[in-house]
Amino acid sequence: MSEIKVGWVRVLKAFDDWIDYESTEFGPYTGYFSLDNLRDLMHSERIGWMVSMYEEIIPGRVQKCKNAGVAFEDFLPYMPDPEAREIVQSMIDLTQVLTDDMLAMSDTINSMKEDYESGGFDDAVPYLADLADSEENIRHHMSLFSQGFNQLSKMGLEMPDMES
Q: Could you tell me what percentage of the chain is helix, strand and coil, using 3-state DSSP and rounding each to the nearest 5?
């Protein structure tokens, strides 16, 4: 297997792992960004959700994003020209932007938990709009990766068929 194909395999595996985490681990927890769904939980379940998001779910998401960034960093030396390197570097930079966005979401969850514990449900509600906005921003940034992959493809650096 050529070095560039090995690089592609690592990048694609990192993205597959990240997408899987988004759908199986993180996604189910976003249902509580809704006021009605959060209201349906008992006090201990709300605290449990916030703690899980802060201590496990978001850190896992951050790690998957960082893993994609590392795969891109390892892939960078195999780019054949400055333009391709610039595209891959922009994708590395995008993982940092996303990491920062995810960590900010984690901070919001932590603040929400602290306010909820000290003041109650009504003190937690304003954070839901912030969480929804943060998630929309993260999803927008995540969608930008497809532009980078498309640009690389137009340059003849197409993803290999993973079946072969």
A: 85, 0, 15
Domain that holds residue 123: 3-154
φ, ψ of residue 80 to 5 degrees: the values are: -75, -15
Residue 163 is predicted with a pLDDT of 56
Q: Is residue 104 part of a domain?
A: yes
- Cβ atoms 91, 148 nearer than 8 A: yes
User: Is residue 69 a part of any domain in this protein?
Assistant: yes
Pull the structure tokens for residue 115: 């306010």
What is the rounded CA–CA span in Å between residue 127 and residue 143? 24
Tell whether 161 is covered by a domain. Answer: no
Q: Would 133 be classed as within a structural domain?
A: yes
Q: What is the pLDDT of residues 35-70, one digit of tens each?
A: 999 999 999 999 999 999 999 999 999 999 999 999
Number of structural domains, the chain? 1
Instruction: Tell me if 5 sits within 8 A of 160, measured CB to CB.
Output: yes
